[in-house]
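Section 5: illustrative case.
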């Protein structure tokens, strides 16, 4: 049986910093090169199906999915494969990558055709062919996620976008409402799901208004306004806030009849069903105090980060000390500026040394704020104590495995302790001990 957790905690109030939210998306020109790591998803890396010297077109399959949890990778440019090399993927693993030199013509592959979808099986096959993964940053293959068991009666659309700075989903709602609607209709129809709730934080009134207008005539579809509390978009938190259902410890959303999709993900489903163009571009919020022109940019997947930064401009007098892929709470620091935009990239934050500086850390004052703020009702300070003693039994009792590395505990800690990093170490330790 699953254990239920107390989830009274409320997360944290974080600054929005969404200065680009009102800016129309700008399409970036074809880059000088495209680097496609064969792992842009949770699961096994793809197998390259092209070799050096091959010609590829927009929409050409270059990496074939491997195993049950994987997603195809397609070229977003026409050009020539210049190398198959090894690169570090976002997961940290070294994986093969297909490097393409674009010809600038953007010729579309004749294989790109709208799929014929008539039932659940052909719908899931189409989503698999799209190469789609969770675009909120999780990277879980969408076709796998949508293969839900019977009993799932609600799809929750995650439009919270609770991370500071990020506005990619906001722009999707304001610019591509029709694709979102088409995607929601397809998911509900082919998976026989009766209800849909679109959850949007109340700091996006234009999105709430746009989506409410768009969806008001749709049977079973509602828009739910959520408080602006980080991490409102965390899957379990979102399910509880939108449906009142609580996913049990160790359980899945489907255990409470729910499947969750990011709002841009569902929009890409709508576009793919209409056009057959697989996932080859990504909207990225480019921001941070070192960026000259912060904006939302539609980028061809595989474009090196330094080309995106050059497109937006960097301030001459503010050297970039840290480049973060994603938001400041859950994003990861990129090892180099050559790192390409991948499917999961929703933000690039270029920070100065001042903005990136870590505050001085003090001793834990046992204030309990990390416990009050944890959205999953965990007790980070107690978990840290159990980890220091290498007490696996206590760690398991404290449900360390549930931690989702959201960063809220670190954010609220007045002593500026690296609480989230300790959670990560404790979680990995407990996992390894369980495997012994
Ligand atoms: S990082 Fe983990 S322990 Fe910290 S607030 Fe988030 S879920 Fe809770
Ligand atoms: S918030 Fe920081 S100082 Fe307070 S109990 Fe947690 S770790 Fe200790």
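Designed sequence:
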């Amino acid at each position: 049986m699953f254990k239920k957790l107390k989830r009274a905690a409320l997360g944290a109030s974080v600054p929005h910093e969404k200065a680009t939210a009102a800016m129309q998306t700008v399409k970036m020109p074809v880059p000088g090169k495209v680097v496609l790591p064969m792992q842009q998803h949770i699961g096994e890396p793809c197998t390259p199906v092209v070799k050096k010297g091959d010609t590829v077109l927009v929409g050409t399959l270059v990496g074939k999915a491997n195993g049950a949890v994987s997603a195809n990778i397609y070229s977003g440019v026409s050009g020539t494969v210049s190398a198959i090399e090894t690169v570090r993927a976002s997961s940290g693993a070294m994986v093969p990558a297909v490097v393409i030199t674009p010809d600038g013509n953007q010729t579309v592959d004749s294989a790109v055709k709208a799929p014929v979808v008539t039932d659940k099986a052909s719908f899931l096959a189409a989503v698999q062919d799209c190469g789609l993964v969770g675009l909120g940053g999780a990277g879980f293959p969408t076709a796998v996620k949508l293969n839900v068991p019977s009993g799932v009666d609600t799809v929750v659309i995650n439009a919270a976008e609770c991370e500071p700075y990020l506005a990619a989903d906001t722009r999707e709602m304001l610019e591509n409402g029709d694709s979102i609607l088409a995607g929601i209709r397809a998911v509900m129809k082919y998976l026989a799901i009766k209800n849909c709730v679109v959850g949007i934080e109340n700091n996006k009134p234009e999105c709430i208004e746009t989506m409410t207008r768009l969806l008001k005539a749709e049977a079973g579809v509602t828009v739910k306004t959520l408080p602006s509390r980080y991490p409102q978009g965390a899957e379990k938190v979102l399910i509880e806030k939108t449906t009142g259902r609580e996913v049990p410890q160790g359980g899945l959303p489907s255990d409470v009849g729910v499947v969750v999709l990011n709002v841009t993900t569902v929009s890409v489903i709508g576009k793919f069903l209409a056009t057959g163009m697989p996932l080859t571009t990504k909207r990225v919020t480019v921001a941070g105090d070192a960026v000259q022109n912060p904006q939302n940019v539609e980028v061809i997947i595989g474009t090196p980060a330094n080309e995106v930064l050059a497109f937006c401009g960097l301030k001459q007098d503010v050297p970039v000390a840290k480049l973060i892929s994603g938001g400041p709470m859950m994003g990861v620091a990129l090892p180099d500026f050559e790192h390409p935009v991948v499917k999961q990239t929703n933000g690039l934050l270029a920070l100065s040394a001042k903005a990136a500086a870590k505050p001085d850390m003090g001793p834990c004052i046992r204030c309990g704020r990390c416990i009050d703020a944890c959205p999953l009702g965990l007790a980070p300070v107690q978990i840290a104590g159990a980890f220091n003693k290498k007490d696996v039994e206590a760690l398991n009792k404290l449900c360390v495995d549930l931690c989702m590395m959201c960063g809220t505990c670190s954010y609220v800690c007045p002593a500026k302790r690296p609480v989230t990093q300790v959670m990560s170490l404790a979680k990995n330790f407990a996992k390894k001990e369980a495997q012994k």
